[in-house]
Amino acid sequence: MRTDPHQPLRDDVRVLGALLGETLKALEGEALFAAVEEVRALSKRAREGDRAAFAALERTLQGLDVERAVAVARAFAQFLTLANIAEQHHRIRRRRDYLRDPAAPPQRASFADTFARLLEAGIPPARLCEAVSRLEVELVLTAHPTEIVRRTLRRQQRRIAALLAARDHVDLTPFEREELEAALRREVATAWLTDEMRRERPTPLDEVTAGLVVFEQTLWNAVPAYLRSLDRALRGVCGAPLPADAAPIRFGSWIGGDRDGNPNVTPEVTERACLLARWMAADLYEREVRELRAELALRAGSAELAARTGGVREPYRALLREVLARLRATRASIERRLAGEPPGPEDAAAYVDDAELREALELCHRSLEETGAGEIARGRLLDLRRRLACFGLTLVRLDLRQDAARIGAAVDALARRLGQPYLDRDEAGRRAFLLEHLRGGAERVAAVLGERYGEAERDVIETFRTAARIPRASLGAFVISMTQRPSDVLAVELLQSAAGITPPLRVVPLFETLDDLARAGDTVAELLDVPWYRERIRGRQEVMVGYSDSAKDGGRLAAAWALYRAQEDLVRVCNARGVRLTLFHGRGGSIGRGGGPTHVAIRSQPPGSVNGTLRVTEQGEMIDAQFGLDGIAHRTLELYTTAVLEATLLAQPQPQPAWRSRMERLADVSRAAYRRTVYEDPRFVEYLRAATPEPELGLLNVGSRPARRAPGRDVAGLRAIPWVFAWTQTRLMLPAWLGIAPAFAHAEAQGAFAELVAMYRGWPFFQSTVDLVEMVLAKASPAVQEQYEARLVPEALRPLGAALRAELEQVTDAVRRLTGHARLLEHNAVLRRSIDVRNPYVDPINFVQVELLARLRAAEGREDRRLLDGLLITVNGIAAGMRNTG
């Protein structure tokens, strides 16, 4: 009889749920526990179709006082968080099951699975190994204005996951098992007694610190483990190891460098963000070298090592003592700079670049190999060399980002000091001005940088002057939001040159709106045809495409197609000019912002758009989901590697011309329908503000960046992340599906539904688009959303809500027929069950949120901290239940 591979997950959830129940009874009393159990029973019956139970659930929660209602919601939120921890741990356990069972096939998209399929497809081993050695993947971490879990709680969650892993050991004694149960009980109780709320809005430096934690806690160990597994797989295919200096995946960051719409990110913040990353790098290397020095108590080494260390008895320890001293000096030097103290003479011992540390480690490696101790060289020392190749001495490279309009205004301010107004010119005139000064070395512009300007222009100018002082290895690219023309890129080049940034940063145009994506290929073609610029980039160009604003602009379906065509255009333009293109994908966690399973997303890109090189943002909550535990981080890195290899080496099917035409019509109809609702229906903005917590998100201390780009109430000014987050909280999930039903209905009216089915079965791009929409639809709950409307929305606006829910029903029916699924996600039993299990726990939190919103709004502007705290608990709980929220 075959055992259920997911029974251990159910066992973990049951144990954690029972411990939470014990905690509630012990710390809050039987009455709260009884209320939670009553609500849970009603919610389960309601989800099973009992309409009376649904009404009773609403009455029960509305009848509770605020404190008791929030406590009930908090209990359900805690359970969902514990279930998330159990699911994360189960992912690691399932991976280990695959690796441990010699009869099991390789895990899908693992190195073993992917390499075997590539070889079967006719890829020669030598070509595969070369492709691995040439991989350039960079994962760019960003802050998330809807990431609301405190670092304290993240640490508690990691401890719970570690205890679950310990419980899996088959050789535990009864006493050890009791001890683990007691430790779990303590952690659950500690979590319950810990304040979830941030009492103050986090600063950008708080976000920097939070972003660096993932390097210290997981990536520092996950990266060498991932590279060891890649090395083993390559040896099996090629018979040759992965080079020690290979770094298929590196890391970037926007945290502390992304100033687009965030006035709190100042030049000082950027400089301190780089210093903090360098400090953590020095600290991590110091810990590792200390352990390596303890290991290498060898009596003798090579002649080269002896000459370097003066013939001492333990030469490796002598050399590494010097390394430790320099790492400590590096850390101390950074601490002085962070404290605002002047440099000291001891700063001369600090490491300046990677090469100095690398030289010492390679000397140890050569000596061990020469003296027959190569096996020792391939242990901790090799891991350390690989860490240095991946992280360098900077740990992570910080991108800078600013809006094109702000850059243009700064250039105009400088130009006016030279008597040559800039913004008054047409595009040709702007380019002429920029190129005149770029060819002349930008000395005249540099001469006026220090003069007095307006606050906005001064911030831009000081950003570049600060970047010139930061060690170049700490910085990545300069990303230009809302790029529309070649002069936007050349303007950044001029500011870099004038500020003295050497070597200059890569300048990355970011195309975000549907119209800008449609022109992206032409814009980049014009830019590459500028001789000065072609000489400057030396055959490499990076372009970023934005998923968030394009979807908010015209809906998910139209945005997906616009992104696909833009990438095709960019590939064609760069190939025609002999320029190697790197596409930078600005994806979020939610489907409405380009999120979804990593492997599926990469494999569904246009042919030729992933050519061994890729950059992708990893945002807020997804950083923890992808890298929160060592085993999960290892698997994430493996998935990125295998997906990029497949997309690079395997021929991708080109869509049939008829399918492209059909997709064009789908996108047009979808975009028009979406915009009729979101931008043209005068009721929509008021409905959004009434039916969702969007107005209240700005009151919660969940991020350093404002929820809006500019004051106002319209959708255009609302950032894409809170736009998605607000609809996710109410379970309508509108940004992911609005406009799709009319597009499919239009195709069906033309007798083309069978063509849509063929597209779904034969075109990876279309299949992944539909599958991701299906996943969102499975998480939607129109009955719950209707409760927000009934309690919060004026009568005159409710017909709009009814129309939206009707369209949700239409798109659900169309997706089921298109995929051939009688029930959403019936092909993915694990995810389907996870959603079904979670729904009865998320629903009560929604009911409490509705009640809190009603009471907050009844207060008519009088801020009630008790209600706001309760609202944040519900926001947290719903986010935990929905997972990919923003």
In short:
By secondary structure, the protein is mainly alpha-helical. It is built from 37 helices and eight strands.
- In what order do the strands lie side by side in the largest sheet? 1-2-3-4-5-6-7-8
Radius of gyration: 28 Å
**Structural class, judged by helices and strands?**
mainly alpha
Q: Report the sheet with the most strands, covering strand number, pairing sense and barrel closure.
A: 8 strands, parallel, barrel
Spans of at least 5 consecutive residues whose pLDDT stays below 50 are: none
Alpha plus pi helix count: 37
Strand content: 5-15%
Average pLDDT figure: 92
> What is the overall silhouette?
globular
Quantity of strands, as a count: 8
Helix content: 55-70%
- Please report the distance between the alpha carbons of the first and last residues: 42 Å
